[in-house]
Amino acid sequence: MKGTVTIAGLGPGNDAMVTPEVTEALARATDIIGYIPYVARVAERPGLTLHPTDNRVELDRALHALQLAANGAQVVVVSSGDPGVFAMASAVFEAIETHPEYVETDIRVLPGITAMLAAAAAAGAPLGHDFCAINLSDNLKPWNVIEHRLRMAARGDFAMAFYNPRSKSRPHGLEKTLAVLLEECGPDRLITFARAVSTPDQALRTVTLGEATPEMADMRTVVIVGNAATRRVGRYVYTPRSAS
Question: Which candidate, 83, 111, 116, 79, places its Cα nearest to that of 198?
């Protein structure tokens, strides 16, 4: 059988949010490759080999998948959320660009429900108008790039969703982000901290930028900042589609 690479999104955490297409791909796989906690979400079974790897080895992981497929394996590379949103799909294509011998590999990218969209749904509809997503990690891009994008998004009055807001190795990134947003948007803009969305540990908290602190987020949190028209209705937060 010809080998294949399927790049699949496992959704935000709840197994009910894994798409049937992804479930089918996992059932056919001979090999699962991914970051340790994501591979742990795939049940072991006869004929399936799990290849969990540590963080920050995305290109090595992608190349391993291509090598296995070249030998006939049915490989599924797993990411949380959607594999095209700050995840493994880009890494696989980057690996092919540097290893063109794999350019004819049969590759499929299967979408998944992103943490950003799951968080927005749990909060109401804060991304109901134009929005952007920004990864606050400076592991792969410098802080000055992040700051520039934050300021441009704020000046364009986009709602914003932030991935990887705060970790033990990067405790000050969110603090700097909040300072930039206060300067650009003012203290009354709504901001939602959505932690562990779709899991039993889910917790949502909406405050104003003036009330927000870095300690309200960790690496399991997606942060959503509204635009100038975003407002509360009861316990929900939404951005009207008529916002200009």
Answer: 116
Mean pLDDT by 10 residues, the chain (244 residues): 94 94 97 96 96 90 97 97 95 96 97 96 97 92 95 97 83 91 97 95 96 93 96 96 72
User: How is residue 160 written in tokens?
Assistant: 């914003």
pLDDT for 244:
56
CA angle 85, 152, 143 (to 5 degrees): 65
Dihedral, CA of residue 226, residue 228, residue 234 and residue 238, to nearest 10: -50
What confidence score (pLDDT) does residue 55 get? 77
Q: What are the domain boundaries of the chain?
A: 4-113, 116-238
CB 57 within 8 A of CB 33: no
Could you tell me which CATH number the domain at 4-113 has?
A: 3.40.1010.10
Cα–Cα dist 9/104, whole Å: 22
Stated pTM of the model: 0.91
What's phi and psi for 42, nearest 5 deg? Answer: -95, 125
What are φ and ψ of residue 169, in 5° steps? -85, -15
What 3-state DSSP class applies to 63?
helix
User: Among 184, 183, 201, 202, which Cα is nearest to 192's?
Assistant: 202
